[in-house]
Amino acid sequence: MAAVVALAPLLTACGAEHDPLFVTGTAAKPTLAWRDCPAAKGDGITEAALYEWDDSSTVDDPGRTLWHIKTADGKTLSRRIRLGTAPDGFTTERALTAALDPGTTYALRANMASDDQVSGFLTFRLEQLAAGRVVFDESSTESRAAYDDRDDEEFGCFTE
User: Fold this and answer.
1) Which top-rank group of organisms is this from (predicted)?
2) Does 5 fall in a domain?
3) What pTM does this model have?
4) Which residues pair with 32 in a beta bridge?
5) Residue 2 belongs to a domain
6) Is 113 within a domain?
């Protein structure tokens, strides 16, 4: 079965070639993450949700919500969150109650503290995940080292 990955950049920052949201880890322990921008030290994920994606799904209506968390106080931030968990300072709006299925496509959406208009969105399949690799952008998987070597400006991380 061909891996299906689609990215729909929702960034309002100008000039971003790639969405800074990515998935890493393994099929047993998928983790959502946000690319670290050197100029945004006080930034982080404030809300995240996982959806079951299907043929009728869109970015605006990504499907059935499987898991949803957000900061309790609006100040707590995270750059890495294991799917299905709520880090300290986050509340669970919808708990992940079932194991993820390898044959299903999932969508992730995350919002950042820097601006409630800065958000990320991607779809992925568990079969794309492997230790030392990331899933990002349209059908793109690559080694974490290659991903980290990409220019920060490709992800909207500007040094102004």
Assistant:
1) Bacteria
2) no
3) 0.82
4) 23, 81
5) no
6) yes
